[in-house]
Amino acid sequence: MAKTKPQLSTAPLLLLLFLLLTTTITTTAFSFSRSYSQYKTLFSLSHSLLTRVSNLRASRGDISGSNRAKLIAQKLERGLGFGFWGLSWSVGWDYAINYAWGHFDYRELYGAVSEMNELLRFLGELTRSGSEIERATWVAGNYKNVLSVAQSVLRRLVKVFRQSGPLKEVVETVQREVVEGDLLRDCLELGSNDLKGLVQIVKDLASQFYSSSSSSSTASQDDYNSDL
């Protein structure tokens, strides 16, 4: 009687994949929990700023633009409540599935962080304006340069967060409002520290993404080289 060739069980491979995925997601979730205060502040500043933008647009008669800003603010307000951890988990899952395996465009992310430093320099000048007239004069003289840097940052982030998910959705929503809704000019006209604070937190988080991703990439490359 002919012997049949034993079938190689796929169970160990599936178990290994499951453990790798679980470890990545757990590590990512823990990283997000450590940044809890940053994310809460990010949500709070975004909500405050977009509410003020909504009111500013309404005062100019831009009801459509006001409603768009209000809708985003309302979504952020829900995120500030008990839904925050669910939203954080959703973003963490997005990162773990789409980006934690090194699927980052490191050059674009590094470029975005560098340009956000330039953007912070501009905003630092604006926040030092002592009156509405000084603020309006500064915006008139510097808006094109600030807009150019902000658009470049957003283009880079769109390339970085290119997979469908919450991270891509957030970046594309902001990019659309900046390009089509003149969001940046509205924020500059309000002249508060909210925008500066937002950019600072986003830059810090992007730097964390870059550090963790580049470290993973270096480790993977070292493992590859050691096998050669």
Automatic annotation (TrEMBL):
<keyword id="KW-0732">Signal</keyword>
<protein>
    <recommendedName>
        <fullName>Pectinesterase inhibitor domain-containing protein</fullName>
    </recommendedName>
</protein>
<feature type="signal peptide">
    <location>
        <begin position="1"/>
        <end position="29"/>
    </location>
</feature>
